[in-house]
Amino acid sequence: MTNVAVHLEAQQPSLHAHVHDVPASGAAHVKGQQHPIKLYLVVWGWLFVLSACSYLVDYFHFQGYLRWSLILLFMILKAGLIVAVFMHMAWERLALSYAILLPPVLVLVFVAIMVFESDYTHLIRVLFFAPAT
Burial letters for 18-44: b for 16+ Cβ neighbours within 10 Å, e otherwise? Predict the structure, then answer.
């Protein structure tokens, strides 16, 4: 057992060998990534335009599926801009982006499956189990 322990210690790098290479904590402070203010102003502009388009849907009295499709489209575009720029998801690792964005997408897929299933179930009930008149 002692030979194995000695062999494993020889393979692990020593943590104390490189202590002198680490700079002092004051000198190690590195300035973070800075984004230009123009990026934020452009995003605010797009958010204003998308919000105006969302209000115009109600102003022009769109009805039915067109109304709800446009409102949801503008809502998703605004949420995407906010998440990408203001929450810095555009600069994150792809794995982290998938970990945050994939679950809501899967929830939407499952909701769509439930909508189709409920429509099918309703159709079957109406066709086969409706009272005869």
Answer: eeeeeeeeeeeeeeeeeeeeeeeeebe
Tens-place pLDDT, residues 76-109: 999 999 988 988 888 888 888 788 889 989 999 9
17: Cα within 13 Å, side-chain hemisphere: 3
Residue 100 is predicted with a pLDDT of 82
User: What's the chain's length in residues?
Assistant: 133
Look up tokens 């964005």; give the residue: 101
Instruction: Please give the Cα distance from 22 to 107 (Å, whole number).
Output: 46
Q: In Å, what is the CA distance from 54 to each residue of 30, 44, 57, 80, 82? A: 42, 15, 5, 15, 16
